[in-house]
Amino acid sequence: MTPVHDLGLMSRIDGLLTSVGPVAGKRVIDIGCGEGQVAQAFAQQGAIVTGYDPFIPPTEWIKAGDGEFRLANGTADAIPEPDASADLVLFVFSLHHVPQYQLAGAMAEARRLLKPDGKLCIAEPIAEGPCQYVMEVYHDETEVRRVAAEAMAEFAAPIFGSEKVVHYRERRVFSDFGKFAELAVAGTRYNPYTEEDVLSPQVHRRFDEMFAICGGNFDQPIRLNIFA
Q: CB within 8 A of 190, min separation 6: which ones?
């Protein structure tokens, strides 16, 4: 069994950077980049990053810190980049959004993009904890996250030489239900639920249950698989 390294409480970005090591000068491809927060953060550390997503407007190269990044359109199993051109390929909270029929192709595509000494880094939220308990009323991703984990085991592990597993917790603090709902409603841009779903009495009730237990700290557990 692959040993698990526990980093404790860290931000999503710090957990990634701590686990993959220095990225200055590295060529990074961020698949399922969304609006580019991770791409920009890695560029701040000196990386050259292209983020791919089928749903975002593309950009020109943008300077950030000691590096630069751009956003482009592309699907996980068809990234328009040369073979062996990346030091690091990222899926950050995005693999479970890849359609199941594309998962095998996505893992093969990541291997194609990587240099011989490159790394594939996949960060996925674990379907447990207070956020999961509240969110599952309107947006339960337990099944798609399970499918994504199985895809890593079936399609990624056999084509890479080694695997490292890291766990950490991303701090999420909400002072009240309104703050939780504000963040959740922002997610309707990319997810199949509505503001009405988020504001339902059942969601509010579950939030209040967890708030009484956690005092507003709705920390999200994260599993990070690094294939080399």
A: 34, 55
Distance CA 144, CA 189 (A): 19
Specify whether the CB–CB gap between 103 and 151 falls below 8 A.
yes
Separation of alpha carbons 169 and 223, rounded Å: 9
Instruction: Please state the separation of Cα 181 from the chain's center in Å.
Output: 21
Q: Which helix (H) or strand (E) holds 220?
A: strand 220-227
Q: What does the alpha-carbon distance between residue 215 and residue 40 come to, in Å, rounded to a whole number?
A: 32
- The answer to the question of residue 82 being in a domain is yes
How many domains is the chain partitioned into structurally? 1
Q: Sign of torsion, CA 148 91 226 84?
A: positive
**pLDDT score recorded for residue 190:** 80
Q: What is the pTM of this model?
A: 0.94
What's the CATH number where 110 sits? Answer: 3.40.50.150
The pLDDT tens digits of the residues spanning 188-207 come to 888 899 999 999 999 999 99
The answer to the question of residue 111 being in a domain is yes
pLDDT of residue 1: 65
Q: Does any domain span residue 205?
A: no
69-117 residue pLDDT tens: 999 999 999 999 999 999 999 999 999 999 999 999 999 999 999 999 9
- Whether 60 is in a domain gets the answer yes
Cα distances (angstroms) measured from residue 70 to each of 58, 107, 194:
7, 22, 30
Domain that residue 60 falls in: 4-128+140-172+219-227
